[in-house]
Amino acid sequence: MGKGSEWTRFVTSLYNEKKKQNANYMFKQALKDAGKLYKKTKDVSQDLHKKVKKSVTGKKKSKKNRTRKNRTRKNM
After folding, report:
1. Residue 63 pLDDT exceeds 50
2. Greatest CA separation for the chain
3. Is this structure's pTM higher than 0.70?
4. Which of 9, 10, 23, 73 has the most crowded Cβ, counting Cβ within 10 A?
């Protein structure tokens, strides 16, 4: 696709679709409509991404042992 974030492309494509149906459709309305739709699609894709990521990567390590204080002690 073109330049811009995923959100920008999503809103623009929604706007173009609705503008074909209604000549008075405004971009600010597309932003409102896209917000509702994007959240739903984003939630579904994030849930799927989390499931795939867990199955691939497994358990994450904690950051407890990565503090600056601990790093300097190990180097001494």
Report:
1. yes
2. 71
3. no
4. 10
